[in-house]
Amino acid sequence: MKAVCxxxxxxxxxxxxxxxxxRFRDRLEVSALAAGSNVELLLEQAKQFRPRLVSVHSREDxxxxxxxxxxxxxxxxxxxxxxIEVASEPSDLVIGALVGRLGLEPVLAxxxxxxxxxxxxxxxxxxxxxxxxxxxxxxxxxxxxxxxxHVAIQQCLAGHPREALRRVVLxxxxxxxxxxxLQQMEAATPEQALAHPTWEMGSKISVDSATLLNxxxxxxxxxxxxxxxxxDIDVVIHPESIIHSFVEYRDGSWLAQMGIPDMRIPIAYTxxxxxxxxxxxxxxxxLVGIGxxxxxxxxxxxxxxxxxxxxxxxTGGTAPAVLNAANEVAxxxxxxxxxxxxxxxxxxxxxxxxHTVLPGLMLDEIRExxxxxxxxxxxxxxxxSV
Amino acid sequence: MKAVCxxxxxxxxxxxxxxxxxRFRDRLEVSALAAGSNVELLLEQAKQFRPRLVSVHSREDxxxxxxxxxxxxxxxxxxxxxxIEVASEPSDLVIGALVGRLGLEPVLAxxxxxxxxxxxxxxxxxxxxxxxxxxxxxxxxxxxxxxxxHVAIQQCLAGHPREALRRVVLxxxxxxxxxxxLQQMEAATPEQALAHPTWEMGSKISVDSATLLNxxxxxxxxxxxxxxxxxDIDVVIHPESIIHSFVEYRDGSWLAQMGIPDMRIPIAYTxxxxxxxxxxxxxxxxLVGIGxxxxxxxxxxxxxxxxxxxxxxxTGGTAPAVLNAANEVAxxxxxxxxxxxxxxxxxxxxxxxxHTVLPGLMLDEIRExxxxxxxxxxxxxxxxSV
Lengths: 386, 386
Fold this sequence. Notes:
homodimer; alpha/beta; Rossmann fold; 48% helix; globular
């Protein structure tokens, strides 16, 4: 029996993870769940999966949940301490599915408890990749991917000598503005940015996919997850989102992992490892029906965020954390209708340019860089609270 | 040092194998070479790679070669016994790259000597799959693929639990008549049939690719090489020949092996195993330049040979050997201008229909079925010698 803890159980990845766990109750159980404010859904999940521990954001929601559960075997905690408690609960696998930098401390706590962590929450590695890897090494804990691209790479690396690897190529759908002009992008509404052509995801990651920063973050994620030279990580636009990524070996042979765009497939792979769980009722991948798989080079003019991520990775230290922080503020401002779509990358660029890079090997240093970047970005986007 | 013997060293696979060996003289050496009548090329190869043993078809050519070589350290033999001698020469790997059923006895001899055999010569497994596998098992020798599709499947199976396999999907370029009408195919010349759109190959396999019987043979080959249920082997037309085959797992995840259509890549993979040899100077696979990879269902109306192969595999016993024999005769007749292109499959169908199936577990039984099928096919195509 594998005990699974989910950080972010009511989000897109969290609910799909529970859907998969629900199919394999004979081998997977839920140790703990953490959510934000969706008490109703968390209540339902807790009743169905009976974890030992659940956490919500506010004290009030915790009290409401405790009452509604009326089950002394399920402990209810709250706040950022509650989140850390859930992450530290003894588990075989902790699903890091929170959104944004918020997920960093819980992931560090899970690693310190010796749990293996599956990361969907890519901002954690973007913000503090080196620190997180050091912590994992010290604790003897492993980090495995839970992003469709990185699970694809993992499947293409399995069983082949690592020294023969030439490079990896991440695929990107191109997002909703793949064919848009710069003028159209300047006038883009949140609704347009959220209309992802192939994947159904949360709103933060959908906007990041529209700017292609999400793909830039995946370059950073791949760099840490697979210990790659940043120059050996490429990106190709593949509008159908059927090939989830490639690996190229030194003999010119490529391996690709493919499938319908359904996160339950990579989630089941990560939950099942080293076994492969059967998902017989998912729609079949119909290549003949799809007819063609297309490939294009990414346009760095219209999608400058992709270049920013590469630059931040090359700079290293606190630069990726600053890019992430500025982007979180800018995305929120765009979704609130305060800045145009193209100002998201422009904001991040300004904040990144002004930032004095520090090594970023101490959590406090990262937190401070993150805080300042948020402050600076807040001023640029005219955040009311600044 | 890995000692490699090549059966069919002057053919397309043979020369490319030597090209790859020439790049890795520090780890690969040539133990023996067998060719047919291209004495000039074999002389050159023997001088360059200095095998202990070489064989040609005729006694006269053997004498000429012996004189031209003037090297007592290289023994020259001839005829079918010479071929068996070469196959039996102690080697780490025997490349089975002869054309047609002719390759069966040498492959059996190589296996009996305990050598691992890499099979490009797919007619061997088509004719006597079960017998060849029994022989390999008895001798404790292994059979590995040397066909781009099957090397692709092997790479997609490596590192993944076998019980999780759902099926394999072989890709086919569709050949030169992919878009031809049945009328155009009826009038097709040998020159048109030999003009393969993506791969440069010998003439027999090029015609088999034009009828799609080659893909049918690959289904049979895959059945034996990977111990698959014939119903778990599918075919999809992929005109660009970039994806060399797919494997589908039970979670809906597919793996594909890809690369430019260059046989040196699968040859290097097979020669290098378990290492992956570097081929840095091959042209890069440029997916963006190619732009799209297309997929179509095979048309069994225009390409009945594909259905015939499946039927022969389902029937089992001597049926695939009979199909292969009839096809060899019909292809030769087509290349000689004696029958139209569409009569190739029609001839095989008639011979297959009339054949009384035997178990096919004894070499004599297979030889007899083969002989009779050739005779019958010869009568149908109006062979002068019959």
